[in-house]
Amino acid sequence: MSEFYADLHIHIGRTNSGRAVKITGSRTLTLTNIIRHARDIKGLDIVGIIDCHSPEVIAELEDLLAAGEITEHPDGGLMYGTLGIFLGSELEINSEETTGPIHVLCFFPYLKTMRVFSDWLKLHLKNVHLSSQRVYVTGKELQVKTKELDGLFIPAHVFTPFKSLYGKGVKRSLTEVFDPNQIDAVELGLSSDTSMAQQLAELKDYTFLTNSDAHSLAKIAREYQKIKLEEVSFKEFTKALKVEEGRKVLTNYGLDPLLGKYHRTVCANCLVPLSEGLACQECGHSRFIKGVADRISELKSVDHQQAIRPPYVHQVPLEFIPGLGPKLLEKLMDHFGTEMAVLHEVPHSALKETVPEKIANLIVKARSGELKVHAGGGGKYGKIIQE
Fold first, then answer.
1. How does pLDDT run across 304-313, given as a tens digit for each residue?
2. C-alpha–C-alpha distance, residues 372 and 26, integer Å
3. Which of 217, 225, 187 is nearest to 203 (CA)?
4. Is residue 312 within a helix (H) or strand (E), and if so which, with residue range?
5. What share of the chain is helix, strand, coil (3-state, %, to 5)?
6. Which among 313, 298, 307 is positioned nearest to 198, based on CA atoms?
7. Which of 307, 311, 291, 97 lies closest to 201, judged by CA?
């Protein structure tokens, strides 16, 4: 058994032809840039690319296979050298059963399977070339199709205020929309962690995933997990989600929820922290964006842990470290290879020889969760508080 770092929610901004896939994604977020950056700069072992239903993305993958730049694993997944690529699709459900839009991730083992799924999607959405499109079927119908193709079904960023399961999609329970037996894992999202999510009893049997939802190369691996597998393959990953034969998620690495964009409830107009039901003292508006912490308090059904969970490490991405700009970050990469190495392995003494001691100290404090943060909300990230 070996340990692998995985970020399973990465968007494609543009195809090789320049066609938009994730409209809000960076133009540099192309398939080839993603896999090179994830492996060689970030130091990841597995990526989930969740716009693989787009026909031009499928064509690019076919070209890379034909050129021998990537290969397909017999047990599912593609390989770019040592990097595993899992083929996913992010879709939006908003049917009669929902109270608002819900984003979900569907992963499939083989490129031929993704082709079949893409052809099916053409019948049920308006633009198959774009990411995160509304699919005109129910949640349960999408689950059935995913399972017919031996796929994995994972609700995405389940607590964020917009376009998520608990943010807008249901009144109280996932059973209002989904078959609980056909959910393979739950993605927490940037404004929540394990201790928060475990307050919902109905989530006790699901593996929790922490992913970046990257819209740019820099955001890749801002959240990720360490997984124990025999090797990198779709079959092995499926076993890990089910915690079978020793395969499992070992550690979740994610932002301190206070750093997330939607942790606290804020005024919808000026983003000042606001108590629900009260007018904003700054601008007088009474509309608010409900924070994840308050939403979980509404849904809370248990006061204690319902299952033994992997540790959740409040990992601060390097881009959040004050004073660590592009030049110093490039210097760290030149010396130590990858961000995973800097975040987890490089000794404090070596960091001090490469960047200013103040920055080295912040990186080490980030490893142990000692950094103090100012809470984010309403779409604005929190900040590291420098003492």
1. 556 688 999 8
2. 30
3. 187
4. strand 312-314
5. 30, 20, 50
6. 307
7. 307
